[in-house]
Amino acid sequence: MPKKKKIHLAQFLVHGPSYHSLAMWRHPRTAYTKDNWARPQLYQHIAQVCERGLFDMVFFADLNYISDTFRNSLTPALRYAAQAPEHDPIPLLSWIAAVTKRIGLGATFSTSNQHPFYAARLWATIDHLTGGRAAWNVVTSINGNQQANYGVERESAEMRYDKAHEYIEVCRKLWNSWDEDAVVMDRDNAVFADASKVRRIEHEGRFFKSRGPLNVVRSPQNGPAILQAGTSPKGRDFAAKYADGIFAIQPRAEDAAAYFADIKGRMTDLGRPPEHCRILFGAQPIIGESEDEAREKQDEHNQLVPLDAGMAILSAHLDYDLSQIPLDALMAERTEPELQRMRTRFLKPSGESMTLREVAQRHGQSVGLPQFIGTVKSVADQMEAFIETVGGDGFMLSAIYSPGAIEEFVDRIVPELQRRGLYRTEYQGVTQRELLRQDH
User: Fold this and answer.
1) Is residue 2 part of a domain?
2) How many CB atoms lie within 10 A of CB 215?
3) Residues that constitute the known binding site
4) CATH number of the domain to which 366 belongs
5) Are 98 and 350 in contact (CB under 8 A)?
6) Which pLDDT score is estimated for 440?
7) Residue 345 resides in a domain
């Protein structure tokens, strides 16, 4: 019998009151007060639970804006906590590193609003502070609200990704500006660092200039592991070239399989081994003692999302005011350029188009992540079937209430996956990149 492919798991988080689910903050099982979602102790606890579950990482998404895209008003995003507020997750990584030992620690940081020297220094420092467990989710900030906060105009996708390629190249040069053995710390001869092993980079490119060297010594991974979530052709090219891990949202297994094959094919064309980048598909597990109880939990959760909440978050993610479109319009038939990026999220499992009402409702419930609903056995069955169909590497999990849902998955689903030979039983490797590449 052929050896089963091991599933990789990561936990999706936001330093805010809601993740993918806009029901989360008001769910009766969520133990939030007005501000305890902002406190580091919650995320330390979550990371410790995920480390007990042998997850590859905890990963924080981040947006630097409160969206007014829907109806040209801040009110819907603020009323429904439609990914607002969001506190900066990067300071949390050090808090979490202090109470964990093996799990990777990832966060989003945009290339659009800071110079690459700052990013290289920041992420090299985080890689040191976490002992080589850092992961940087590289994004290019497509939203006009975010760019307005920085006083700049939104650029075309082509320009943004051209800049991002150079941005990463500058960071790599800076991370390489210190040799691994540059620090000698020779007390007798008063030599801390061997200057012949530290170099200026003298970068002068189309978009950036940087003299260097970096003033941070070479970090455990020589810079963090790189994460990406590109869906456009430019985004996929970027991910195939640089990413150690990809977070992908594809509601239908058929579309996930096509995405997986496309990225791995691009990697092969670039001469990168396909196993050097793990593609983790978003999933929202809902577990019950019985199938009926699980469906009741799903219904309870989904009904907590008002339609306007879904319209607000979908408008924000598309950067397009959906109040201009009739609620009964079939979304897969729309021709607006702004809507095409998420077209696979407009389809029912059968391939038929959903209406705007249906898409918005689902987006508020899970941002398009498939919900795996059932008993421990049936949820594990659904996960296994998805991977068999897709060929994918694993899942980025998203909770429907917090704390509680993550603990249920770790305590119940993880042992079932291990029993089936689908999941690791111990960590191997030390750095985030090593965890992602672990195959056994």
Assistant:
1) no
2) 12
3) 62, 108, 161, 232
4) 3.20.20.30
5) no
6) 56
7) yes
- Which range of residues forms the domain containing residue 288? 8-437
DSSP-based three-state secondary structure for 189: coil
Instruction: Give per-residue burial for 157-176: e unless 16+ CB within 10 Å, then b.
Output: beebbbbbbbbbbbbbbbbb
Low-confidence ranges of the chain (pLDDT < 70): 1-2, 440
Torsion angles phi and psi, residue 245, rounded to 5: -155, 145
Instruction: Please tell me the predicted confidence (pLDDT) of residue 181.
Output: 97
The annotated binding site for FMN is made up of 62, 108, 161, 232
Residue 274 lies in a domain: yes
CA 61 to chain centroid:
6
CA-based nearest residue to 49, from 323, 429, 419, 412: 412
Give domain status of residue 290, yes or no.
yes
For residue 374, give the H/E element and its range.
strand 371-374
pLDDT of res. 156 = 84
Domain count, the chain: 1
Instruction: Count CA within 13 A, CB hemisphere, residue 77.
Output: 23
pLDDT score for 158: 86
The whole-angstrom separation of Cα 261 and Cα 259 is 6
Q: Given this model, what pLDDT does residue 281 score?
A: 97
* Burial zone of 58 (CB within 10 Å; 0-12 exposed, 13-18 middle, 19+ buried): buried
